C-alpha cells in the first residue's frame, strides 16, 4: 500500500520526512499543489475543491491512505474527504491541546493561516481544551509565501515576525503553537525572537503517530518515493529543491519542543 501526502506546497514535507523515518519501508507519494498555494487566504469551498482534486489524484496513483499534511486543508476538507473516500484520511490539528496541557501557566499563542484561524475547527478545539481563556490566535500568511520562495533569511523573516508579534506581550506566554506545516521552516527565527521560556509546539509527531495507528504500525513496501507538483511529476530542479528543504528541516530539529 502506498501512503499519500498532500499539502498546498512544501510545508507538508515536514510531516512527510517524519513519516519516512517512522515507516522506512513504506512507498510514499507527495503532492504539492504549488499552482494554487497559498491556501490560507482562499475560501473554504475553494480549498475543499482543490483538496478533493489532490486526494483523487493520489488515489489514482495507488494511495491506500492519505495524510492531509496541511492544517488549512484539514480544517476545510477533512470531513468531506472522509465521507467521500473509502480509505483512511489523516489530518492535521494545531497542537493547542498539547500546549495547554504541557503549559498550565501562562498564555498560549496559536499561529496558523488566516483560514485556519477563522475556521470553526480551530475555534471548537480551543473551546474544548481552553477553559481558562488562555489561548490567542495569530495568522501568519507571510511565512507561507516566504517558505514557498525558499527565503528563510533573518533579514526577511525577522521584521515580518516582529510586526506580527507587536500586539502581544510575549513575556506573558508559555508556548507558541505552529499550526501550519510551512511554519516549521522558521523555527530558528521563532526561537531567536521569543523569550527563552516560550516553548515551540507543533502537531507533526501526533499526525504521524495517528497514521501508524490507523495502518497498523507498519507499511511494508520498497521505500519508493514519488513527488508531484499540482499533478506533474517533479523534475530534476524540483527534486533538488526538495532535497534542500528536507535537509533544512533536519537541521532545525534541535528547535523542536
Please describe the topology of this protein.
Layout: E1 2-7, H1 13-22, E2 27-32, H2 44-60, E3 63-68, H3 71-84, E4 89-90, H4 96-102, E5 107-112, H5 114-118, H6 120-129, E6 135-139, H7 141-149, H8 154-165, E7 173-178, H9 187-193, E8 199-201, H10 204-215, E9 225-229, E10 232-233, H11 236-251
Parallel strand pairs: 1-2, 1-3, 2-9, 3-4, 5-6, 5-7, 7-8
Antiparallel strand pairs: 9-10
Helix pairs in contact: 1-10, 2-3
Descriptive terms for the model:
6-stranded mixed β-sheet, 10 strands, Rossmann fold, single chain, 257 residues, 4-stranded parallel β-sheet, globular, alpha/beta
Q: How many helices does DSSP assign?
A: 11
**Can you name the CATH architecture of the largest domain?**
3-Layer(aba) Sandwich
Helix content range: 40-55%
Which class best fits the helix and strand makeup? alpha/beta
CATH class of the largest domain: Alpha Beta
Unreliable stretches covering 5 or more consecutive residues: none
What is the element string, with H for helices and E for strands? EHEHEHEHEHHEHHEHEHEEH
How many domains in all? 2
Task: Name the shape in a single word.
Answer: globular
- What is the rounded distance between the termini? 32 Å
Report the β-strand fraction as a percent range.
15-25%
Fold and architecture overview:
With 257 residues, the protein is α/β, with parallel strands linked by helices. It folds into 2 domains: 143 residues, Rossmann fold; 106 residues, Rossmann fold (3-Layer(aba) Sandwich). It is built from 11 helices and 10 strands. The strands form 2 sheets. The chain has a 6-stranded mixed β-sheet with strand order 4-3-1-2-9-10, sandwiched between helices. The protein has a 4-stranded parallel β-sheet with strand order 6-5-7-8, sandwiched between helices. Helix 9 links the parallel strand 7 and strand 8. Helix 1 packs across helix 10 and helix 2 packs across helix 3. The longest helix has 17 residues. The chain is globular, with a radius of gyration of 17 Å. The mean pLDDT is 96.
